[in-house]
Amino acid sequence: MILPFERIGEIDTDAYQGGYVVRLYPWQYFEPDGSVSLQVDEHGIEIGTNAFVLYRTHGEFELYPPPVDWTVRGLEKDGEAVTRWGNGVTDTGEYVLRISPIGTEQPKHFEGPPQGIFAPEYADPDTNFLCQVVLAWLTVHTYGSPYTTAQARHLELILEAEGLAEFDVYDARGVLRHGLTACPLCLRVIRHEQLHELVRFEEGSGLVNAAVQVEGATRSTDANLFHLVPLVYGALEHAPHSVAWGHATCNTRLGQRRCYSLAELQQMDLKLGIVREDRIETIGWISTDFQMIRSPFGAVWIQLSSDMSEAEMQGAPPPPVLAPDDELEVPVAEAEDGVPVDADEVHIGEIGDAP
């Protein structure tokens, strides 16, 4: 599992079974004179043992070149190089290259295997197993599913044993509608084939001119793993009560926001209305953090941006944002303790006793 160096203070490392590795950027590890940063020593980080350096640009590689005794990260078992994690496999090397091309004279330079999943996606084996059970049970209840509820009785027994079989709660969260699996954001029923078809954007509101996805060029299906609570550093949110199947486009729109259900907003009791000349016309409910509005008929509004600070109102630039390092991540389908990303990872007939 990968812990970004800049997030170490937010994360309780004892919560993660199986260990972790810290990712540092060159400018975080090296001082301008080439010496090791004092902050690195303070956290007990040892490159090659519990950490690695990620190079993302040619400029970084030229400004902070790896020491001559460093090697690219790799995997080894019994003294032999291997390509996949497994029992007895250990990490080797100190750095990873994910350098994208810049012009014709700056070639792409990718070296080193994926380093794991990121901390927000982590769940211990038992929790991850229950998430898979919930997703498998929801797969059975998609519209047009080839499975029967009788075939899924073993899933219900597991959910009942773990206190996860209060199916009216699934309805309240928007995960089910009238006994069928639904997208928690738009509340439309999920068709079984959407779990396997490539995502299509032309049907989405506001996405009519989005590029067509080419088969083999994307792993995203029309419906995929959906979290009601965003995955963030400092909390373990990948849990059976917050997973669902949802539309890829709805996932994109929601971003890193909580997906409030209509029932939750109604409990907050903040009605939103339009002031007419002769009346106030209420149209729905808004969350207390002003992030989401829902109408009783299914329409959803999401806050796209927050208010500007006083300085920004006067023209000050926004603070810089670090670019993501997704290329380091193990594709979820390959991670031994990762999170399934589509229905192909959740096999109805193969989920039995919990590990």
Map the helices and strands:
Layout: E1 2-4, E2 21-24, H1 26-29, H2 38-42, E3 51-55, H3 58-63, E4 74-77, E5 80-82, E6 90-92, E7 95-99, E8 109-111, H4 125-140, H5 153-161, H6 167-173, E9 176-177, E10 180-181, E11 223-227, E12 243-247, H7 248-254, H8 262-268, E13 271-275, E14 280-286, E15 292-294, E16 300-302, H9 310-313
Parallel strand pairs: 1-2, 2-3, 3-7
Antiparallel strand pairs: 4-5, 4-6, 7-8, 9-10, 11-12, 13-14, 14-15, 15-16
Low-confidence stretches: 208-217, 331-355
**SSE order, as H and E?**
EEHHEHEEEEEHHHEEEEHHEEEEH
**Major sheet:** 5 strands, mixed
* Alpha plus pi helix count: 9
Basic shape: globular
Q: Provide the spatial order of strands within the biggest beta sheet.
A: 1-2-3-7-8
Distance between the termini: 20 Å
Number of domains: 3
Query: Quick check: average pLDDT?
Result: 83
Q: What is the percentage of strand-forming residues?
A: 15-25%
Helix residue percentage: 10-25%
Q: What value does the Rg take, in angstroms?
A: 23 Å
**Which structural class matches the secondary elements?**
alpha+beta
Instruction: State the total count of DSSP E strands.
Output: 16
